[in-house]
Amino acid sequence: MDILPEIEKRVSVRAYTDQPLEKQQIDRILEAARLAPSAKNRQAWRFIVVRNPDLRARLQVACFNQEHVGQAPVIIALCTTNVDYKMPNGQLSYPVDLGIAASFMMLQATHEGLASCAVTTFDETEVRVLLSVPYSMRVVMLLTVGYPNERLERAQRFPLSRMVSYDHW
Predict the structure, then answer these.
(1) What global pTM score does this model have?
(2) In the chain, how many domains are there?
(3) What is d(CA 160, CA 46) in angstroms, rounded to the nearest whole number?
(4) Which contacts (CB < 8 Å, 24+ apart) does range 1-5 have?
(5) Is residue 127 part of a domain?
(6) 163 lies in some domain
(7) Separation between Cα atoms, residue 101 and residue 1, nearest integer Å
(8) Contact indicator for 45, 117 with CB cutoff of 8 Å
(9) Which residue, 112, 121, 120, is CA-closest to 22?
(10) Which domain holds residue 63?
């Protein structure tokens, strides 16, 4: 299996059709996240799937009126259940863990013929209230998922030579 073509197809989409997703598609996207690696295999995450149109509209407001948030037929909130765990280097693990899980979800969405976009600009307190997330947890990001309603164009990517060196800086 060559996964690079799937990675090359994946783009962030900010316009969706109103076509609903099948439950099986959502389940496969969530299964991809479940299989993602995490620090010490802690799996300190919780995913909230939002399909309710009224709740999606309220989340759009909490995301500073980003239209695609209210437009996407599915929004997945990625939350951490352990805000304190640090890796041996002192870095908090949940941003890394949930970033990996989100990447797996976005790749599975692409494989399903769907589009997605990671949303990190939002009022966390408002989102937490809307989704009844306990205050001991954090909402790290939202992921919009649906059928694209725009031409899929990959943003310009820097060449490897600009970002890779071997053995030293």
Answers:
(1) 0.93
(2) 1
(3) 34
(4) 3/107
(5) yes
(6) no
(7) 20
(8) no
(9) 112
(10) 4-149
pLDDT digit string, tens, across residues 29-84: 999 999 999 999 999 999 999 999 999 999 999 999 999 999 999 999 999 998 88
Residue 12, in any domain of the structure: yes
pLDDT tens column, 113-165: 999 999 999 999 999 999 999 999 999 999 999 999 978 788 888 999 999 99
Separation between Cα atoms, residue 149 and residue 165, nearest integer Å:
39
What is the 3 state secondary structure string of the chain?
CCCHHHHHHCCECCCECCCCCCHHHHHHHHHHHHCCCCHHHCCCEEEEEECCHHHHHHHHHHCCCCHHHHHCCEEEEEEECCCCCECCCCCECHHHHHHHHHHHHHHHHHHCCCEEEEECCCCHHHHHHHHCCCCCCEEEEEEEEECECCCCCCCCCCCHHHHCCCCCC
Q: Give residue 139's pLDDT.
A: 98
**What span, in angstroms and rounded, lies between the C-alpha atoms of 50 and 57?**
11
- 68 domain residue, yes or no: yes
CATH number at residue 31: 3.40.109.10
How far apart, in Å, do the first and last CA atoms of the chain sit? Answer: 32
